[in-house]
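Changelog note: in this version the structure field was regenerated for every chain. One regenerated record is shown below for reference.
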Amino acid sequence: MKTLLDSASPRTKMFLAMGLVLGLAALAPLGGVSATSVARGLLGAAALAGLGWWLVRRGRAESRFVLTERMRVVSRTGLSQRCGLALVEVDGSRYLVAFGDSFAEIRRAHAPVALPPEKETLP
């Protein structure tokens, strides 16, 4: 459900809120309520409304935005205490990464070669 305020800019929303606060502050003495009480009430209401808006947006953001995994470590092994080898997949391409304390070397990994099926020999 879209409201009129959904399409308004943050600046417009701020001016509207300031106008409402000033209008209520001007009308407060007429009703026998002090301006301080009205200001405290408005501040509390604004804080609760902001918290509610934040909670609603936070719950909705998870369902509409999904991150895709662009890089993942397929496997990793240690060659020594300070060196290792990792197979990394980035956007569908695989790379071998040899790394150590002061170096890293990257090589593109080729697709594995499919071996022909072994023929059964009869004894």
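Spot check on this record: The CA atoms of residues 26 and 123 lie 105 Å apart. The chain has two helices and four strands.
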